[in-house]
Amino acid sequence: MNPFSSGTRLSDMIRAIRASKTAAEERAVVRKECAAIRASINENDQDYRHRDLAKLMFIHMLGYPTHFGQMECLKLIASPGFPEKRIGYLGLMLLLDERQEVLMLVTNSLKQDLNHTNQYIVGLALCALGNICSAEMARDLAPEVERLLQFRDPNIRKKAALCAIRIIRKVPDLSENFINPGAALLKEKHHGVLITGVHLCTEICNVSSEALEYFRKKCTEGLVKTLRDIANSPYSPEYDVAGIMDPFLHIRLLRLLRVLGQGDADASDCMNDILAQVASKTESNKNAGNAILYECVQTIMSIEENGGLRVLAINILGKFLSNRDNNIRYVALNMLMRALTVDSQAVQRHRATILECVKDSDASIQKRALELIYLLVNENNVKPLAKELIEYLEVSEQDFKGDLAAKICSIVEKFAPEKIWYIDQMLKVLSEAGTYVKEDVWHALIVVITNAPHLHGYTVRALYRALHTSCEQETLVRVAIWCIGEYADLLVNNSGMLDLEDPITVTESDAVDVIETAIKHHTSDVTTKAMALIALLKISSRFPSCSERVKSIIGQNKGSFVLELQQRSMEFSSVIQKHQNIRSTLLERMPVLDEATFSGRRAGSLPASVSTSGKSSFSIPNGVAKAPLVDLLDLSSDDTPAPTSSGDNFLQDLLGVDITQPSAQPVSGMQPSQAGADILLDLLSIGTPSPVQNGSTNGDLLFMQDNNAPIASMDTISSTSPTAPSSMMDLLDGFGSTPPKNEDKSPAYPSIVAFESSSLKIEFNFTKKPENPQTTNIVGNFTNLSPNVYTDFLFQAAVPKFLQLHLDPASSNSLPANGSIKQTMRVTNSQQGKKPIVMRMRVGYKINGKDVLEEGQINNFPRGL
């Protein structure tokens, strides 16, 4: 006999496939066997049909195509015998699914088998229907399933209940047909039927509010009695699992009680006693008992308020945290996060255990416990919790340091009782994990330091000490050199000493040594080196005796391949060498930075050019309102006074520092002096300008997009039409007595609401330059209409081919609750005047870690764009 003929037994084929040494041999065996099966199908060989289908099922499980055998399933199902039907239904469930059109042909056979006199054939039909039922089949066969829920045999009733669950999921409207039969199943004594009946009633309650009210009134007491009987029942080997009576039925009953009790005080009162009994008497030394306890806790936390029960439930979760099983601890942490919104005081009692979970070796438990600790922190416990977390930061693994450092910084910033404590904790974090600290965090630290004048000396001394022990932490180095540059005199003179600190001896040379080391350190990046050069320049003003040494160190970067460092070196050397008379004024201590303004910008709720103070901002040549203070760290404050018109101030934009006296007031009616222009032109290494006809015509020489925008190149300035000295100073800084007023000849376009939902509103504002009518500048304002913070906020847009779209980064990737952020974009319409602008947009963000995606099409752009 041919070993691969249709008469080959299933076991022989399996043996031949397993004996294949390569994938090619296996494919050859399967190919020959499939050919033999096709031949047998074509010959309509009824003797081997069931064997062929069994082989096809095995081949299907190996991943090979078997669609050619689908009709054989239907033929076997139509056979009168039980063995053929069994293979046919098994093949039907494996080889087909509800999306196959062939399935429509089996509906009639299923209906006949559901009414068959042989209960085993009825059971086969119910199993198949429960696995592959489609919506059409559900509507056709629901009456048969409803009838079988009252069948005499418990196995049939059980399978019918499972089949009814599938029908309700496919067609929720049919749920009302199963309300009474489902309620009847709740009185069953057979556990198999009872558990499926409970499951069926739970599904009905989830899809029908009328059914939910019916079960609350009619079945709550009966379910409580059933659960009490099972909890108090004696040992039964038939249902025992690890010494617990039928934990699966326990869990199903608790889930149904949770659905019934949620939002209903009467039903909740009815089940309080049995929930307390289950929670207190169930053993927790086995997984089966823990599963029941966890489900019981979920039920207690979901039903209407009962303070004592909730404390009991949270205590159970506290015990779970001490379990050696990582899975149990993880689900306990998840549940405690939910419980925190209900009873935070009860969760606070387990703070020490949760803190130990932060130190766990399992990464998932670490992160979840850290999130829970973050939610537990308040003004009363911030100090001990921050201390514990910082101590663990010292020994934590590198992969976890980033998350831990971020949470500690957020906790310290949010709940700091006093500034000195905040500064101390942040220095500890920077010393241990400065590499992982984000930029806005150390910016915020500098803002706080500037706002605490009585702590300037203490802070600079603490940073000086920390720098000697943690010089590898880049962020710590940046904060330290910034403070040393600002407060080097306080460091050397031991000014502002507090009772809790010991004096240290630091010479002027030591201060310069620290900055020089930072510049030359192999790990320092361009930003750190640039900040160090500024600090050296400021030290040269604080300590004139060190000027020559500072000049030498700065001069070493004149040949740097990094343009930023080379430019700073050239400019700073020129300031030290040629402009002694303005250096002290130029390098005065930074003014106090406004904390509220910085916090608003950091949260993305304030645009960078909006001033929160009542003082007026000044005009710059391109007509954009800007605040006068340009901070080296981009931590500008809008609360500083407008600068005076003295010639010394015209170095401000060039050096990126503010040299204004805090009490200075704007001076009107004064023209800048010729000397001021000479100083600036000398510093820029360009010749003395000759007279011009009109200084205001060069108002666009310096095109500024933000506080850090570069000034126009020297070639541009020198090649423009000559101008008067006073006008040159106006062109560079806009500090003249009569700033040029640019007439806005751009056409006005109305703002539109591009998109609006219950949680998000998007508005577009339009501007267009007359000389470039094809290009439209759009400012999108994204407003959060919900009380939740949106994180990982991302706006995406697509336009047709005749349009070109350029998107700038948004002002923040976090959209605060009831706040807003902005994003600019530029659209170029090659068919301007012929085709309007259209845009497809998509917005993605996260709410509490859950991804949200919103899409829409914008068709209401104003005409003429």
TrEMBL record:
SUPFAM superfamilies the UniProt entry points to: ARM repeat, Clathrin adaptor appendage domain
Keywords tagged on the record: Cytoplasmic vesicle, Golgi apparatus, Membrane, Protein transport, Transport
Pfam families hit by this protein: Adaptin_N (PF01602), Alpha_adaptinC2 (PF02883)
InterPro entries tied to this protein: Adaptor_Complx_Large_Subunit, AP1_complex_gsu, ARM-like, ARM-type_fold, Clathrin/coatomer_adapt-like_N, Clathrin_a/b/g-adaptin_app_Ig, Clathrin_app_Ig-like_sf, GAE_dom
UniProt entry tagged with the keyword Membrane: yes
Keyword Ion transport appears in the UniProt entry: no
The GAE domain, residue ranges: 747-862
Family to which the UniProt record says this protein belongs: Belongs to the adaptor complexes large subunit family.
Protein name: AP-1 complex subunit gamma
Subcellular location, record wording: Cytoplasmic vesicle membrane; Golgi apparatus
Organism for this UniProt entry: Camelina sativa
Lineage: Eukaryota, Viridiplantae, Streptophyta, Embryophyta, Tracheophyta
